[in-house]
Specification:
The complex is a heterodimer.
Chain A (H helix, E strand, L loop, with lengths): L3 H11 L5 H13 L1 H19 L13 H4 L9 H40 L8 H23 L5 H6 L6 H10 L1 H18 L5 H29 L1
Helix pairs in contact in A: 1-3, 2-3, 5-9, 5-10, 6-9, 8-9
Chain B lengths: L2 H9 L3 H23 L2 H17 L9 H22 L28 H19 L3 H12 L4 H8 L3 H20 L18
Helix pairs in contact in B: 1-2, 2-3, 2-4, 3-4, 4-7, 5-8, 6-7, 6-8, 7-8
The chains are: A mainly alpha, B mainly alpha.
Chain lengths: ~230, ~200
């Protein structure tokens, strides 16, 4: 029984992997040792049998299609420009919406303490609460009209006439019933803040148009490129 | 167009250039897969997967033997296929007769240029060799398939298997030794020139 190191040497020798001196030494041992020579013959025969194994032809062609490798048609150089402009315009559009909705709130947030002090401590900076108060203001004025009508029929009515529409009336009513009039003055403070959007609506329209046109251009480029490619 | 130019074109995404390379290597790749896996359908799948994977990663080819590189891809695909087979065992290599018995010389192994007797002998010998190959551990089988069946040199086999040269030498010697023992059981099928020597030399 030969050890594995000898068999490894014989296998390498068979493939010409030993250097000249190693080969010479092994050849001398093979000549002197019939058992080693027999192993070499067996290994050579085994290799010969394996080499005799017929090579089979591929049963079909393994050529690849573009779909198989997920290749996309080459796009013209203008394509990234449109892609960039679409992305950039979209980001800008989102920012304009964000700016238009956040900036007035910041303005209102700053106005809220004044409103609170005017009310005598009631309420906070909440937008909806203020709007509710504002919409309730005419009704409150009407109630006040009914309430003040009872004690005197003529003089108070004359005083009440301009109350809902003029500043003068508001001031006078403020003297009589500051609690009811205060929301109306808050509404008047608030209205200019809401109408002053930092980004004009026109810009948003322009950005939207840029997005739509760029997306359309990209779609057309993609379609024409894939049609050409096919 | 030579191989280097085709590889360079393929690296730039030229699928036609890569398909030319496929046509050149597909028989070698399929045969390697067939000898490692021992099954036609699995070998087809592995070869196809190997080519897809090779195209996707051809940019990582940095020169050297393209054959060794493509062989590494196919051996990886074969290992994947064997792992998949372990999880979901499939039908055996040999087709069965209507009685449910294995056909010793299946039709798909036939070579139309041989006489019926030669065909039968060749089929049986091929079957025997394949049987002995399949008895080897996968790493040994891969090395012997690449070195002895595909005729690659040790350096190429080392590159294709991603193992050191010394390991290749050792695995090849062990694989040949085991094959020799296995083929002794099919002595009558072996051609006279390949008959193995004495019984107790090792």
């Amino acid at each position: 029984m030969k050890n594995f190191r000898e068999i490894e040497l014989l296998s390498s020798y068979l493939d010409g992997q030993l250097n000249a001196s190693e080969s010479k030494r092994l050849e001398a041992r093979i000549a002197a040792d019939p058992e080693l020579a027999s192993v070499l013959i067996d290994l050579r025969a085994t290799r010969g049998i394996l080499r005799k194994l017929p090579a089979r032809k591929a049963p079909r062609n393994f050529t690849l299609t573009r779909q198989m490798v997920g290749l996309k048609p080459p796009l013209p150089r203008a394509y990234p420009v449109f892609r960039f402009s679409t992305a950039f315009a979209t980001i800008l559009l989102v920012l304009t919406f964000a700016a238009n909705s956040i900036v007035p709130r910041i303005g209102m947030g700053a106005a809220a303490p004044a409103y609170g002090y005017g009310m005598g401590g009631g309420g906070g900076g909440d937008d909806t609460a203020m709007q509710e108060a504002a919409t309730e203001a005419p009704a409150a004025a009407a109630e006040m009209f009914v309430a003040t009508e009872a004690p005197s029929a003529d003089a108070p009515f004359a005083e009440m006439q301009p109350a809902p529409s003029t500043d003068e009336g508001t001031l006078r009513e403020g003297e009589q019933a500051p609690k009811d009039v205060a929301p109306e003055s808050a509404l008047q403070d608030q209205v200019p803040a809401q109408s002053e959007a930092p980004i004009p609506f026109t810009w948003q329209i322009i950005l939207l148009a840029v997005i739509l046109l760029s997306a359309l251009a990209m779609w057309i480029i993609q379609k024409s490129a894939s049609r050409k490619w096919q | 167009m030579d191989e280097t130019s085709l590889i360079q074109s393929a690296q730039k995404g030229d699928l036609d250039a890569f398909n030319t390379l496929i046509l050149h290597y597909q028989d070698t790749v399929f045969n390697t897969a067939l000898r490692i896996l021992g099954d036609d359908d699995m070998a087809e799948d592995a070869a196809q997967e190997a080519f897809i994977s090779a195209f996707r990663s051809i940019s990582s080819f940095r020169g050297g033997s393209f054959k060794a590189w493509i062989m590494r891809t196919v051996t990886n695909a074969c290992y994947d296929e064997l792992r998949r087979q372990k999880r979901r065992p499939t039908t055996p290599l040999e087709p069965e007769t209507s009685d449910g018995e294995e056909m010793d010389s299946p039709k798909w192994m036939a070579d139309p240029n041989m006489t019926p007797s030669e065909k039968s002998e060749a089929d049986e010998l091929e079957h025997a060799i394949q049987h002995c190959l399949e008895a080897l551990p996968t790493d040994f089988r891969t090395v012997v398939v690449l070195a002895d069946i595909q005729g690659m040199d040790y350096t190429e086999v080392a590159a294709a298997s991603k193992v050191p040269l010394g390991t290749i030498k050792s695995r090849l010697a062990r694989a040949r030794l085991r094959l020799r023992e296995c083929l002794r059981g099919f002595e009558e099928l072996l051609p006279a020139s390949f008959r193995l020597e004495g019984e107790n030399t090792l």
